[in-house]
Write a structure and sequence with these properties.
By secondary structure, this protein is mainly α. The protein has helices spanning 5-24, 44-74, 78-104, 113-129, 132-156, 162-184, 192-211. The chain binds fe (ii) ion (FE2) (2 copies).
Length: 212
């Protein structure tokens, strides 16, 4: 359906506002953090490992905000736009939980977050423009890859860092549900080269965000 230029401009401004709020850290969680024991690992090596991994997860959630924002901007079907926005609200909780945990671990978000936001937003718009089925396919594949990634972090997070583990476990469960929602709304199966390209991009992100 044709949308008047004013409404497109409104949506662009709303997307820009979302970007600024996400990147400035002005994000509040609607749900309480799943962390029950906020103790920080006693060994410096473990604290650094936790901070690196949680910084990666924080950047992943920055990417999720950007992806969903880009997809919602161009989604054709109001039902799909609604599903994208409600998943994005849960991703905002993840972002706030990871940000708070990073601070507790005495660390900070990745300096490259604006770059990752811009790239993910572009991917979101591109997949949205390809059509709702492809957009949902992209979402379902992203969530599946994130779920596996978080599973890996549960193996790598220090055993003494209960809070980070609780946050990551809850995020993994939410991501699995987001993937199911995408599939139930008619997600297309992405071609293998696209899946590979997504894996490669996320590998670059996870490797750099751990350190920078
Ligand atoms: Fe998430
Ligand atoms: Fe998700």
């Amino acid at each position: 359906m044709f949308r008047a230029p004013a409404s497109i401009l409104d949506q662009l401004l709303a997307a820009a506002d979302e970007a600024l709020r996400t990147l400035s850290g002005a994000v509040t969680a609607a749900r309480p953090s799943p962390a029950t024991d906020r103790a920080v690992p006693s060994s410096e090596a473990d604290r650094r490992t936790s901070a690196g991994l949680m910084r990666v997860n924080h950047t992943g959630e920055i990417c999720a905000q950007a992806l969903y924002s880009g997809q919602a901007l161009v989604a054709r079907d109001a039902r799909i736009r609604g599903a994208l926005q409600s998943a994005a609200a849960e991703e905002r909780d993840h972002l706030a939980w990871c940000g708070a945990r990073l601070a507790e671990l005495g660390s900070r978000p990745s300096l490259l977050d604006p770059v990752w936001y811009a790239g993910s937003f572009a991917w979101g718009v591109a997949s949205g423009l390809a059509g709702d089925r492809w957009s949902l396919g992209f979402l379902a594949e992203t969530e599946a890859q994130v779920e596996r990634h978080l599973e890996g972090h549960l193996d790598r997070l220090p055993a003494g860092d209960k809070a980070s583990r609780e946050i990551v476990a809850k995020m993994r469960d939410d991501e699995a549900r987001h993937g199911e929602t995408g599939r139930s709304l008619g997600a297309a199966e992405l071609p293998y080269p696209v899946k590979r390209a997504m894996q490669s991009a996320s590998k670059v992100m996870t490797r750099t965000a751990y350190w920078v």
